[in-house]
Write a structure and sequence with these properties.
mainly beta; twelve-stranded antiparallel β-barrel; 3 helices; five-stranded antiparallel beta sheet
Length: 299
Amino acid sequence: MKCTILSLVVFCLFATTNCMGQSETTDIGDQVKIELKDGSVIYGSIVNQTGNNLEVQSDSFGKIEVEISDIKKIDVLKKEQSEKDQKGNSIDYHNSTHYFVAPSAYSLKKGQSYYENIGIFWNSYTTGITDNFSLSLGGEIISLLFAANFPIVYVSPKYSIPFENESGAFAVTATAFTTPEDDFNTYGFITGSLTFGNRNTNLTIGSGIGFSSIDGFENEVVPFNFSTMIRIGPKMSFLSENWIIMDEGFNDSFGILSAGLRLHFKNSGSALNVGLWRVTEDMGSVIGIPFVSGTVAIK
């Protein structure tokens, strides 16, 4: 009797372990990521399933049959994780919303969010409130580490109007910075952005006007930006963000140029950005100022 009970317990544990090792319940038409026991990974959609086999339509291998006993794990992909552009590259919804610093006119989808770090000291969090409206919150920590002052913080809402078939978008972004220790004096700018192209490969032109809680709106400094992102492979995009700063009533101006790469991680929406910035004024022997940032998709 004891042996029978022990055998039953062992069987239940084994069955439970197998169930835990299995993945989400799948249905016909689901976009899935299948990890096999030999380490292989298959992306595709389920077209048929029986008790022993899954029939998968793979983008890379066509229609294939996979024995369930060979499967280590199955993940059902969200719609945005399985969508691809015309070249077969996954669409990066999270990083399509910005270049190095400048925003594109695309917004996050409702419920999507990501954390971003720029140069270690600047941190922000962005979330999609609706498909057209997103909100960013962030600040710097240099003041806390070196000056023992309260850091500069910011809030930046964006309202986006996408074109048909996601061939581009128009957006208005307001960014306000404040230092609580400085009587909450606020300064920032309102920017209009027009993006042409899809979320993976596009060009954005934008301009804005500055404001402050003391002086109101002013046009002494007017920034124009021309930015582009070009997907050059499944894991890499080319980035270029360029600014023209008009100063002193358009009597004086200078440019800020940049170029670099965006490295897309396996986790959809997470990426590392590396590049060089250079002003058009004389920088001596300095080729450019390095720039590094990273985004981590949360949802």
